[in-house]
Amino acid sequence: MDLQFYKESITPIFEFLQTLSKEQIEYKPAKDKWSVHEIIIHLADVEVQAHCRIRSILANKNKSLINNDEMDWSIILDYSSTNLEDAGNLIKLLRKINYYLLIKLKPGQITLKGIHSIRGEISLENLLGMYAQHTLNHLNQLKRNILTK
Q1: Beta-bridge partner residues of 123
Q2: Are 102 and 54 contacting, i.e. CB atoms less than 8 angstroms apart?
Q3: CB within 8 A of 94, min separation 6: which ones?
Q4: What Rg, from alpha-carbon coordinates, does the chain have?
Q5: How far apart are CA 130 and CA 82, in angstroms?
Q6: Long-range contacts at 57-60 (CB < 8 A, ≥ 24 apart)
Q7: From CA 94, how far away is CA 4, in angstroms rounded?
Q8: Contact criterion met (CB below 8 Å) for 131 and 8
Q9: Single pTM value for the model
Q10: Residue 149 — pLDDT band, cuts 50, 70, 90?
Q11: What are phi and psi of 121, to 5 degrees?
Q12: Who's near 95: CB < 8 A, 6+ residues apart?
């Protein structure tokens, strides 16, 4: 896993966000689809989960990684009213903190595994790759949102 890629995979999201108007950020392409705002809040929640899961794999005896229903979270936790700037700052801070932890790993630690409640056994290396790709997938979703407007 290229840790630099993991660290920097959030950068294009924030570069793109800077080009959008408030109207574009709040626009929902469909009732059951997220706005740009809600996607960023989702990414903040995912970053918190990543922060905990990385530490669970590295330090817990019980390596369980619980899955969460992202749609339930977005509705029940009212993503649309969550502060966008705070969420963005949280994403950047946690990605930075995680990166600095990860670059200090001893040989072999990146291959440690956790047990995801849906995906089953997953190595830290694969988990980090999934998080980096997840961010890029949402960048594409952000762009599609704007194109449908």
Answers
A1: 113
A2: yes
A3: 47, 48, 50, 51
A4: 16
A5: 25
A6: 57/112, 57/113, 57/114, 57/124, 57/127, 58/105, 58/109, 58/112, 58/124
A7: 15
A8: no
A9: 0.94
A10: low
A11: -65, 135
A12: 6, 7, 10, 47
Domain ranges of the chain: 3-148
Amino acid identity for residue 35 in this structure: S
Which H/E stretch holds residue 115?
Answer: strand 113-116
> Counting every residue, how long is the chain?
149
Residues 47, 64, 132, 36, CA torsion sign:
negative
H-only helix segments in the chain: 3-8, 11-17, 22-26, 36-59, 70-76, 84-102, 124-148
Q: What is the CATH class of 3-148?
A: mainly alpha
Distance CA(51)–CA(48), nearest Å, equals 5
List, for residues 30-43, the tens digit of each pLDDT value.
Answer: 989 999 999 999 99
Tokens matching residue 112: 């440690």
Tens-digit pLDDT profile for residues 95-141: 999 999 999 999 999 999 999 999 999 999 999 999 999 999 999 99
